[in-house]
Amino acid sequence: MAYLVLIGTRKGLFTAHSTDRTTWDLKGPHQLDDDGFTAVAEIYAAACDPATGRILIGASTFFGPSIWRSDDYAQTWSEPENAPMAFPQDLPYRPLDFSDTAGIDQPDTDQTNTVKRIWQLAFGPGQRVWAGVEPTSLWTSDDGGQTFTFNRALWDHPEHTTWASGAGGPAVHTIVPDPADPQHLTVAISSGGIYQTADDGKTWNGITKGISVDYGPDTEPDSGQCIHKVTRDADGTLYAQSHGPAYRATRPDGGWTNISQHLPSNFGFAMVAHPTQAGTVMAWPVGESMDRTPPDHQISAWRTTDGGDTWNAWGTGLPQEPYFGTVMRDGACTDGAADPGWYFGTRCGDVWAADDTGRWQLVTAHLPDVLCVRAMETP
Predict the structure, then answer these.
(1) What is the pLDDT of residue 242?
(2) ∠222-259-194 over CA atoms, to 5°?
(3) Which residue among 83, 89, 128, 370 is least enclosed by CB atoms within 10 Å?
(4) pLDDT tens digit string along 42-68?
(5) In DSSP terms, which residues pair with 45 in a beta bridge?
(6) Domain count of the chain?
(7) Is the dihedral angle over the CA atoms 217, 219, 223, 229 positive or is it negative?
(8) Considering the domain boundaries, does residue 100 fall inside one?
(9) H/E element holding 351?
(10) Do 141 and 148 form a contact (C-beta atoms < 8 A)?
(11) Domain that holds residue 26
């Protein structure tokens, strides 16, 4: 088999190919269209489907955000003729952060909201694609990403008044499909919490209660927590990295269990579950000081095989000298193989790969700030 890694950066999309996860051939930045703006676009979102070879990326260019598609493992690209998503014209005005609006008069006229950035893309069955967007919204496509429909039910959820923007911006930044049930979906929101639907987005239930915070007057709110990432393991257990501890939930409506006791820090962004082994998850802790660098300035992944009850450092092959690059929320992944490869990129522009034995190999170094990493097996 061969392997393809998609690397989204602040200045374009790069790809890396390998037949052994050790030696890599880097290409990029890719110019996806004729005008060249995509070669320096911010790439916050990417999704890949090894069964079909389909790839989608969300790019923010001089002209605004759009979605590019490849059906041949990143060899060629196409973009929809028209903007793939636009908020309804009659959508009432909504402030981006309700916590800052006390005593401020807001416009009482309708105002068109603007798609600022595409934060997440995920494939469903058939031609279904989900997109998480800033400002905080979820969209669905049933034509492979050519056109998208705005999910009004999540936007109008009664708890939306507790959602804030977060430091990265107000967005649906995580989409976790259930491979056993296409009607079931979990999403996470910047400073908004975690929500699930069991009816393909017609209704939504908040499942964040029990995740504590140390940055607000209510330490255990029902909603509004700053969630950084959610991942799902092979038996359906959810793991969440919050702006604070990491958590596990076998049944989210039954509560969350703090699993940060054996990690070097409560804080972090990325979490990735093993595609076939239940209870096996990787995390990339970030120091709790405001400099947002690895604990003790030492880059390392941490791995659990028992659902977070214990963790072990996975740092073999990584730099031993002081390191200051953080792994962002979508900067890590597996390639989905039964014997998976693990990948992560940092804000220093380095990308690393490891097989399941745990020794890291450098894929590439000194790229622009890495925002997202996705990988898959290829023929």
Answers:
(1) 95
(2) 30
(3) 89
(4) 999 999 998 888 999 999 887 889 999
(5) 58
(6) 1
(7) positive
(8) no
(9) strand 351-354
(10) yes
(11) 2-91+111-378
Does the residue 168 lie in any domain? yes
Contact yes or no for 175/130 (Cβ under 8 A): yes
Side-chain half-sphere exposure of 91, counting CA atoms within 13 A: 18
Would you say residue 104 lies in a domain? no
pLDDT at 108 (0 to 100): 41
* Residue linked to tokens 């239930």: 205
Find, among 45, 246, 51, 26, the residue nearest to 131 by Cα: 45
Calpha distance 154→304 (Å, rounded): 33
> What phi-psi label fits residue 307: left (phi over 0), alpha (psi between -120 and 50 degrees) or beta?
left
The secondary structure of residue 251, as a DSSP letter, is S
The answer to whether 43 and 12 have CB atoms below 8 angstroms apart is yes
Q: Which residue in the block uniquely carries the two structure tokens 């916050």? A: 44
Neighbours of 89 (CB within 10 A): 9
- The domain spanning residue 22 has which CATH number? 2.130.10.10
Residue 116 burial (10 A CB sphere; 0-12, 13-18, 19+) = middle
What are 313-336's pLDDT values in tens digits?
999 999 999 999 999 999 999 999
Q: What is the pLDDT of residues 255-291, one digit of tens each?
A: 899 999 999 999 999 999 999 999 999 999 999 878 8
Cα–Cα dist 112/246, whole Å: 37
Judge whether 321 lies within some domain: yes
* pLDDT grade for 298, boundaries at 50, 70 and 90: very high
Percent of the chain with pLDDT over 70: 95
